[in-house]
Structures are given as C-alpha cells and as structure tokens.
Amino acid sequence: MASEGAQITKGSTKTRTRRSVLADSSNPRWRLRRTVTLIGLMGSGKSAVGRRLAQELGVRFIDADSEIEAAAGMTIPEIFEKFGEPYFREREREVIARLYHGEPFVLAFGGGAFINPETRALAKRESVTVWLRADLEVLVGRVARKDSRPLLKNRDPREVLSALIEQRYPIYAEAALTVDTRDEPHEAAVRNVLTALRHAREVTRQRPPRRRRRAALTAGSPS
Ligand code: S3P
C-alpha cells in the first residue's frame, strides 16, 4: 500500500515529501537493532535505497549530504565552489559526528564520508555498515541522470568513477555487509539489503500486537 514517505532533503536545502510504494511505516513488520549506514560510490543508490528501506522498517531516514547542506545553508555544489573540497570534508566529518544518537534509523553517507578514518571508525562503532557495491557501468549510467555532483563537473564521469573505484573499494570493503546492486529498480536493492540485515540478525520480524494475537487464537479455537 502506498503511504506518505519520510521527509527528505536530498539535493536541496528545502524539505519535501515523497510517496513510497513500500509498506505502511505506522505498523512496521520489522525491528531494527542498530542504525544502518549505507555507503558506496556516487550513483550506487544510497539515498534512494535508504529512503525506501527506512520506510519499510518504519524508522527515520537521514541523508548526510542533506544535513550538511542544511547546516551550511547552501547546496553541496555551492560549498565546493565557494570553499573547496577540504572545507566540505571537514563539515562532513563534523555533521556526521552529531547524527548518531537516539532510536535506530537509516543513514545514507555521501560517497567520500567513509574514507575519512574518524568517520569510518564512528560508523563502524555506532551502526551496521552496508556497502552498496556497483560496477563501473551501473555507476556511469546512473550518474548521467544528475548533474549536481561537484567531483564530476566538467570531467569524464567514467574516468573519475574508475579512479574512485580503485581508491575507495578497498576501504568500502571494511563495511560489515556488502550488497551488490545492478541496473534494476531500487526496490530490488532494498529487498537485498533487508535480506542481508536479517541474515546478520540486525533486523528481526516484529510479533503482531497482543490484541491481534489473542484474536487470532480465539478465532482458531473451538467454542
Ligand atoms: C561525494 C559524493 C556526494 C557528495 C559530494 C562528494 C564523493 O554524495 O557527498 O559530492 O566524494 O564521492 P553522493 O555519493 O550521495 O553522490
């Protein structure tokens, strides 16, 4: 059943609401033991998958890039343009350090966040880290749909992504779980992440509320 989506701010400092095709979050079927941090390269689907996963689990979704934008009062391309990448990395580290608290939720990192050793250690300690691994072709196809990524501006996306795969994949491999994503609808990746989380016992099935259990038992018993 379609239901109102979690509030998201990805790509702009304004808050908007999206519809989801996944489960109704008011009555989650799952219990999430720890926060989930999604990592992976640009185009791996972290935000889209994270938002849908959070909806399915009935928990909050936070997009780290959107939090950085909100804190800075400007978009990521503007931060890069005005202050440069080192400044962005410092803000990224600071903002993420404030995010891990409260009830478990789903957090999507920007592609470079897990590369910072401090942020990486924090994510490993405070959450279950999930790498959305995708091959070059999938990433190149996906990033072509959006032109708001400063690292790809005026550059050949294939070259940049290929270099980033070399540099970052050995580090992403430190994630607790790895889920391969292909050129398929994000719902497929959501299902695969959920399966990986269930196997790792990070997610368990929620028992139905007491009243419904008793009603089910009474309905089944002879009068
Ligand atoms: C970056 C990825 C971006 C964003 C910034 C830098 C990176 O996030 O944080 O442009 O270093 O890979 P997405 O991975 O969500 O595109």
Q: What value does the Rg take, in angstroms?
A: 19 Å
Strand content: 15-25%
Please provide the count of β strands.
9
Strands of the widest sheet, in order across it, are 5-6-4-7-8
What profile does the largest beta sheet have?
A: 5 strands, parallel
Overall geometry: globular
Task: Provide the list of bound ligands, each named once.
Answer: shikimate-3-phosphate
Please write the string of helix (H) and strand (E) elements.
EEEEHEHHHEHEHHEHEH
Number of discrete helical segments = 9
Ends: how far apart? 35 Å
Structural class: alpha/beta
Protein traits:
alpha/beta, binds shikimate-3-phosphate, 223 residues, two-stranded antiparallel sheet, single chain, 9 helices, disordered N terminus, 5-stranded parallel sheet
Descriptive account of the structure:
The chain is built from 9 helices and 9 strands. It has helices spanning 46-57, 64-72, 76-83, 85-99, 117-126, 136-143, 157-172, 186-199, 210-220, and strands at 3-8, 16-20, 30-32, 35-39, 61-63, 106-108, 127-133, 177-180, 203-205. The strands form 3 sheets. A 5-stranded parallel sheet has the order 5-6-4-7-8, sandwiched between helices. It starts with a strand and ends with a helix. The relative contact order is 0.18. Residues 1-24 have low confidence and may be disordered. It binds shikimate-3-phosphate. Shikimate-3-phosphate is lined by residues 42, 46-47, 65, 76, 110-112, 149-151.
